Amino acid sequence: MRHRKAGRKLKRTYSHRRALLSSLSTALIQHKRIRTTTAKARETRMVVERLITRAKRAVAHEGNGGAKNVHARREVFSFLRDRAAVSTLFNEIAARVAERPGGYTRVVKLGQRRGDGADMAVLELVDYNTGQEKKAKKPAEKKAASSRKKTPAAKPQSETKQAESEAEQEKKQ
User: Fold this and answer.
1) Cβ(88)–Cβ(48) under 8 Å?
2) What one-character-per-residue DSSP string does 130-158 give?
3) Which CATH superfamily is domain 14-128 in?
4) Which of 79, 121, 135, 147 is in Cβ range 3.0-4.6 Å of 41 for a Cys bridge?
5) Continuous H helices in 93-129
C-alpha cells in the first residue's frame, strides 16, 4: 500500500528523479514554457510551485525593509544548480507573481507523441503568455513577407521613374 506517499516515481531512482525534476524546473524558469510528457509536467509543476512560493515570500520579506534573504536563495540553488535560473526566479518571476495567491503554472495537454504514444503536455508559467504573443506575431510576419514579395518587382520600376523625373528636372534648369 502507498499510504501517505505522494508523487510519481517516473520509473527512476531517487537521485535520477531529483536530477530530472531539477533540470526540468531550471528549463521552465529560463524559458517560461517547456514541452514534456504529462506525468513529468505534473511532477515538475509541484516542484516549481514550491520554489516560486519560496522565492515570493523571500522577496516580500526583503521588500519590507529586511535584509536580502540569502538562506532562501541558497536553498533554491541547492535544488536548481544554476545561478542564472535562481536570479531570474528571485528578480523577475517572484516580482511578477507577488499578487497571485498560487497556481503559477499551467499544464496544457497536447496529445500523443508519434514515436511511443506517450501523452505530451506543455508546462508554462501563467503570467508569461508566450503562446498568445507568438500568435499575435505570426499574422504580422505573414503581412511583412507578402509585402516583401511585391516590393522587389515594384522597386526597379519606381527607381527608374524617379531617375527619369530627376533627369527631366535637370533638363528644365
Assistant:
1) no
2) HHHHHHHHHHHHHHHHHHHHHHHHHHHHH
3) Ribosomal protein L17 (3.90.1030.10)
4) 121
5) 94-96
